[in-house]
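Example 5.3 — Transposase (putative) YhgA-like domain-containing protein
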Amino acid sequence: MVSSPHEAMHRIFQEHPELFSRVSEVLGVDFAPPTSFTVLPNDLTETKPLERRVDTLLRLDTEGDGSFLLAVEAQGKKDPDKPASWAYYASYLLTKYRLQPVLLVVCQDRSTAEWAARPVRFGPPKWPLLTLRPLVAGPHNMPLITSPAEVRKDLALATLAAITHATNPDIGAILKAMTNVLRDTPAALSNPIIEFIAQGMGKHPSAALWRKLVAVDLSFYTSPLSEELRDEGRAEGRAEDVLTVLAERGIDVPEAVRERVTGCGDVEVLGRWLRRAVTAPSADAIFGDG
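Solution (predicted structure tokens):
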């Protein structure tokens, strides 16, 4: 499983290219919905020196805006070298495909998003040669969707919004609204969404919350990731049971024991430790190492 939110923030556009027109509307720029699309190779490397890859590259064909290229970049932090790379991407894509490029940068924190949204001018101050102006989606401008009815209106947009709000204090309500809708969504559509959100939560505390919601609310789904998430949720619950039994019996639990229990992902092993916790004379005794 790819744990980085980076993948989810751009790959969702490969699965739902029509999402760009809705995101651009949220950002105040009205692009027509695509009538067709093509996922293009993301390798922008020249024959020699430096390897350059845009995260996701799409050709979108529309009735209102004609055909254009959409480059999607997931940006996790401020990087002073990125604007020059993005300008290179735009020039290269225009030269190679003879289509106008649009750059969408997706972020999970407001500071990075505001940094990425600032126009960058290239050239001498008296006569700038060009100006880079990416569209930026982040927690500062993506909708905060906590209503299942709103999720149902646009599942792809709600998914991206949830990913950009991974650290929001209301993330519990956001993710609960997602599972409420995914319960009634066909598996062919819901399973990739489950994966995108799992990736998008990354190593944030919201990742554990999503695992628990998948294990409980989406227990009948059978995608590889949902099975993995449910196993993790069961292991976490069983580990809590072990520690609870020891605490109820008044047995002191050293930090080393606590870490070993909570760090175990094997449900069968945890079950064995749980049975031993009922009668063990000490916390260490549940492991049966001796």
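Remark. Residues 224-248 form the longest helix (25 residues).
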